[in-house]
Structure formats: structure tokens, C-alpha cells
Design a protein that fits this description.
Helix content of chain A: 55-70%
Largest sheet of chain A: none
CATH topology of chain A: Tetracycline Repressor, domain 2
CATH superfamily of chain A: Tetracycline Repressor, domain 2
Oligomer: homodimer
Number of helices of chain A: 11
CATH class of chain A: Mainly Alpha
CATH architecture of chain A: Orthogonal Bundle
Number of strands of chain A: 0
Number of domains of chain A: 1
Radius of gyration of chain A: 18 Å
Chain lengths: ~220, ~220
């Protein structure tokens, strides 16, 4: 999943997939401003200023502040969905696929915690049509995790009393990494991901796989 | 723990412990405004207006907007700490105490999700002294959960590879209920609390207690 870090919020060039360059810089500035001050306290003038551009230059790329939030939210949610569907479609046991989903999903939320917070906390600020679109992406993310857990239950690998609630709790646990990661985290995104994969396998009472998932159960 | 719901954000009279009445109404209005629009996008004029009061009347009770946030944050964190320390100090096995902590902590975060979001997401907006005070309350909350988990490990009840990381994950899982509860929840705060208590006992690989914790492991 190295590509995720390189294309969204990576160290070298965040949001490299967004072009042209001015549109990319504005998106980076918008994430920072929304994360620091909240969507409603941020003006398009603030965002243009952070990007070293004029408000008029911003309007060439984004007609409204909401369009910026929608762009950020859609890219963030599409990455999350890609991570979860890749794991759901992967080869291997349900435990291996669930561990993979959690490891990569946590890594993304830790490594891109500023984007993730905007994506998660500013959902209500989206316009009705954009919100519907994003809720559909979230429904599909949820479905990918449920699919893995259901497969594990059917194969007798997992013991889960209530699959939808467990899938929601797994995603919730991983998403909240974006809230605390910067403040209290003493570990790398990779280490948190591996530790969480182990915790989630416990939540579904997974039988110990023959080969332990890579990096799980760290001291 | 019924008193928690009655004294903070309860159905009948939220924040009943705060007085006089005008100060209480302003606090309720501030929680709503901060939760809806964010701290930075909210003015003291907005808050006074929501409470049906003049800005001048607000200043009698709160000198700054930050004072309102601090008051909300301190009461919220003190309630959280009370819930967790009560469970840590309770009689019973570590599994029973951990289940009690999770059940009540989740119930509070589900039942008071608006307050909880403000308390959790606007930490950076507190002034330095107030932040230090709140971080100390959080440290003590964390310590209460670690204490229960450590007791369980020492008694051979729990199998946990890394206690501090597990305590953080348990709190994080419960806190994030405040983010999704209103949007996706189909269950009562009590039901979510009972379901989560079971999930957390799985996270610590608790041995099945002789009598199952009340309400855990619902279908």
C-alpha cells in the first residue's frame, strides 16, 4: 500500500494525484486550514493565502469552499475503500485478510491523520448530493469489512455474535487513530497498524493461524 | 451511573449541576453551537443568541469563549474520570470491572455524543493552562483503565501483549462511539455499551467468568 502514502499527504508531495499544481497546493492548504480551525471558521481567502495565491486564483480551480471539502472527502474515502476492498478481495484466510485490512487502514489513518480528521469530522458540512455520494462510499467500505468477517464466521475461523456491529466497531477503532495519533502516539503508523491487527483478531476470536500474521502481537 | 445522565446533558435538564440557571443555559447553548459549527466559527454573540440572552448577559457568567469551552471540557472529563475510577475501585474480578468501565463509558459517550465531540475535538482550542489541567484528567483516566488491565494480567485473567497500547485502544474504541452514534446507531446507549463490553473482554483475551457480566454478549 506504499502508493497510498505517496499519492495522498505523502512526505514528498502530498496529493500528487491532484493537478494542476495550483489545484494541488490549494487542496493541501485547505486540509491544513480545515484541520486547524474547522470548516466553518475557514474562508476561501484563508485557503488562498496559505497556498500563496489570490482568492481570484482559487476560484479558477474551485468554485466554492464546499467543492474543496468534497474533493478532500472523496479522495480520502476512495483511498479507504480501496484499502478495504483490496484486503477483502485478497487471497488467504479470513484472519489474514482482516489483519491486512486493519494494518493498512490504520497506517493510512495514522500517516494522514490531518486529512482523516477533516474527512471524518466535517461530513455534515457537505452539500446534500455530495453527502449522499460519500455515504455510499462509506456503505461500501463497511460492506468490505463485513464480507471478510462473514467469510471468517462461515469458515469457522471467527466467533462473532453480531457481524454488523463488529464491523462497525473495527472500522471505528481504526478511524479513531486519526484523533489521537499525533498527540499521544509513540509508535510509527506501521507499528500501530500491526498492534491493532492483533487486537481486531482477538475481537473476532480468531483461531491462531498456522503462520502468525506478519507483525502482529508485538511487545 | 444514572446520575451521570441526569447531571450532564440529561433529557430533563442538561447540565443541571451548573448554576445559576442563566449560566447553565449558556453552557447548553455553547455545546450545541460548538458541536454544529466548531469552536472557532462560533462567537459569544451566537451563544448568547441561542440561549435567548444578550452578549452583555453572557459576560456576567463567562468572560471569554474559551472559558465556556474549558467549563464544558472539565465537566466532561471529570465525568469520564469518575466513571472509570468507580469501575477501577469496584469489587469483583478484573473482567467484571473492565466490563463495567466500558459499559458506562460507552453509555456516556453515546448518550452525550454532542458534548463528547466538543470535549474530544476542540482540545487544541483550550488555553495552555486549561489544556494542562485537562491532559492531567486524561492521564488519570488512562491510568484507571491500565490499572484494571494490569490487575487482570497479574491475576492470570487476561492475556495482553502490551498494556499501555491496549488501554489506549479500549478508551479510543469507546470515545469514537460519540462520532458515529447519532449517524449510524440503531441501538440504545445501553445496548452499545453491553456489546462493547463483550468486544473489549475479547481484546484482552479474558477467560470466561463464572457468571457472565450483566448484559454482555448480546445477539
Amino acid at each position: 500500500m506504499g502508493t497510498v502514502e505517496e499519492t495522498v499527504d505523502g512526505e514528498d508531495k502530498p496529493w500528487a494525484e491532484v493537478g494542476p499544481e495550483a489545484a494541488r497546493r490549494l487542496l493541501v492548504a485547505a486540509v491544513e486550514a480545515f484541520a486547524e480551525r474547522g470548516y466553518h471558521a475557514t474562508t476561501t481567502r484563508d485557503i488562498a493565502g496559505r497556498a500563496g495565491m489570490s482568492p481570484a486564483a482559487l476560484y479558477i480551480h474551485y468554485k466554492t469552499k464546499e467543492e474543496l471539502l468534497h474533493r478532500i472527502s472523496r479522495i480520502g474515502h476512495e483511498k479507504a475503500l480501496e484499502i478495504l476492498e483490496t484486503a477483502a478481495d485478497a487471497e488467504g484466510t479470513a484472519a489474514e485478510r482482516l489483519a491486512m485490512a486493519v494494518r493498512h487502514f490504520v497506517r493510512w489513518h495514522a500517516g494522514h491523520h490531518m486529512t482523516a480528521r477533516v474527512v471524518q469530522y466535517e461530513l455534515d458540512a457537505l452539500g446534500p448530493e455530495h453527502r449522499t455520494e460519500i455515504i455510499e462510499l462509506r456503505r461500501r467500505s463497511d460492506a468490505a469489512v463485513r464480507r471478510i468477517i462473514n467469510d471468517g464466521v462461515e469458515a469457522g475461523e471467527f466467533d462473532v455474535p453480531y457481524v454488523p456491529g463488529t464491523a462497525l466497531a473495527v472500522l471505528s477503532l481504526c478511524i479513531d487513530v486519526a484523533r489521537w495519533f499525533n498527540v499521544e502516539g509513540r509508535r510509527t503508523p506501521d507499528e500501530v497498524g500491526a498492534f491493532y491487527a492483533d487486537l481486531v483478531l482477538r475481537m473476532v476470536s480468531a483461531r491462531k493461524p498456522e503462520a502468525e500474521p506478519r507483525g502482529a502481537a508485538q511487545k
